[in-house]
Specification:
The complex is a heterodimer of chains A (about 130) and B (about 220). Chain A is mainly α. Chain A folds into two domains: about 80 residues, no CATH class; about 50 residues. Chain A is built from four helices and two strands; from the N terminus they run ββαααα. In chain A, helix 1 runs antiparallel to helix 2. The N terminus of chain A is likely disordered. Chain B is mainly alpha-helical. Chain B has one domain: Up-down Bundle (Four Helix Bundle (Hemerythrin (Met), subunit A)), CATH 1.20.120.80. The model of chain B has no long low-confidence stretch (mean pLDDT about 90). Classes of the chains: A mainly alpha (about 130), B mainly alpha (about 220). At the A-B interface, helix 1, helix 2, helix 3 and helix 4 of A face helix 1, helix 2, helix 3 and helix 6 of B.
Amino acid sequence: MANAHGAHAADEHHDGLGHHISPLSTYFLVYGALLVLTVVTVLVSYAELPPAQSIPAAVAVASVKATLVAAWFMHLKYDKRFNIFIFVAAIWFMAAFFVFTLFDLTSRDAVMETNSHYQFRVDKEEAAQ
Amino acid sequence: MSVAAEHGHEHDHPPYLAHHFFNMNQQADSVKMGMWLFLVQEILFFAGLFMAYIAMRYIYPGTWLSAAEELDKVMGATNTVVLLTSSLTMALGVRAAQMGNNKAVAGWCAATLAGAYGFMIIKYLEYSHKLHVGLLPGKFFSFEGLEQNAADAPQLFFSVYFMMTGVHGLHVVIGIGVIVWIMLKAMGNSFNSENYAAVENVGLYWHLVDLIWIFLFPLLYLVR
């Protein structure tokens, strides 16, 4: 079984099942990157950016961190393709859930206005100031 | 690969190989796929809470800007580092299990537990402060120091905050339970380089708890 992975560097090991065992340095590198990104996201928050910039920035940094954890700590990088598929499919469905619910949320004001009902997005004016 | 791999039932196979699997490889892959299916269920379950966050934030943008000021960034950041560190020790525990080193597995589990308890202690300090000053969900909200407009609804921010961090905290508590279980098994020399699926799956669960916090922390504490 291990022969199939013979191309790996000498410091990479395999267990009894032929699964990949990452060298210690990989774990510490990933951990270091996670700490740096945590500092980055905290520092960005002190820049007092408006939400339109701070939310995408925070989500982007968090996504990179999540990718690091999933790929190396959770071994997805070396895992069966099918497990990667399960994970990515769930993220895709989560995104679809968010997007379609946002279609509803963002179109309500217009609908309410036409029907002269209550204002849905209550403190929009105050926030815009 | 062991003799038990390609054979009928008369041979002895390791006690940890269930009889409905052909070999350890097949068993390990099946168990891990089952774990991943459970984990994505957890992701989709938390997606509902994140959607609540998005919806409330969209409807009450002003509330979010003012209410989030009441959260302690330093405590949130400290907890992030604590949880990331415990994720590292858990990953190292799984690595030790892959190499069949039970003693190291138990040690890394103990380190991970220290992180988990640290996280809960900091969470407790945060919660008790909010309880004390009345930064609470729904009708229990009684905090007076918040500068707010008539249309603001800080009680909703704290409903979302307590629901998301509360359910996440519950996962940490469950994590403590399963890591203790793994630690005790490792102390009884239960794992080897062929049989470590339990350690691996507990590790995956713990990393998922970390993964969710990676998003909770900036969205609740940092983004104003």
